[in-house]
Specification:
Strand order of the largest sheet: 1-2
Order of helices and strands: HHHEEH
Helix content: 25-40%
Structural class: alpha+beta
Largest sheet: 2 strands, antiparallel
Number of domains: 2
Distance between the termini: 37 Å
Strand content: 15-25%
Length: 112
């Protein structure tokens, strides 16, 4: 389906309505990420760029529907990711599991 289809536009409006004011502000404001925060997320940060945030429909993970956010400037990446999600549906989608011994050594990871 083309990226600017009527279905995508209506879904986008539905998603915007479900966002809290704080979530909408965080996604749409300019400069939401500080250099200090970015440096804690990954190493060797030297700057920041604004990148469009897309939403991808149709991801079936562990039997549940998910809408997946993706930040990229490449138009083909979300299209191919969505296509991959469509292809996996015939076999039940994506399935995940976790072991009891999660790696908690990474300071960028947050676990409940």
């Amino acid at each position: 389906m083309p990226p600017n289809s009527a279905r995508s536009e209506s879904t986008l409006e539905e998603l915007r309505k479900r966002l809290t004011e704080e979530e909408y502000y965080a996604l749409t404001r300019s400069g939401g990420l500080t250099l200090d925060t970015a440096d804690k997320m990954t190493e060797n940060v030297i700057g920041l760029m604004h990148v469009p945030v897309n939403f991808l429909e149709g991801f079936l993970v562990n039997g549940k529907e998910f809408i997946v956010p993706m930040a990229t400037e490449e138009r083909e990446v979300p299209v191919m990711a969505r296509r991959g999600a469509e292809l996996t549906r015939s076999t039940g989608g994506f399935w995940t599991r976790s072991t009891a011994d999660n790696d908690r050594s990474d300071p960028g990871c947050r676990y409940p």
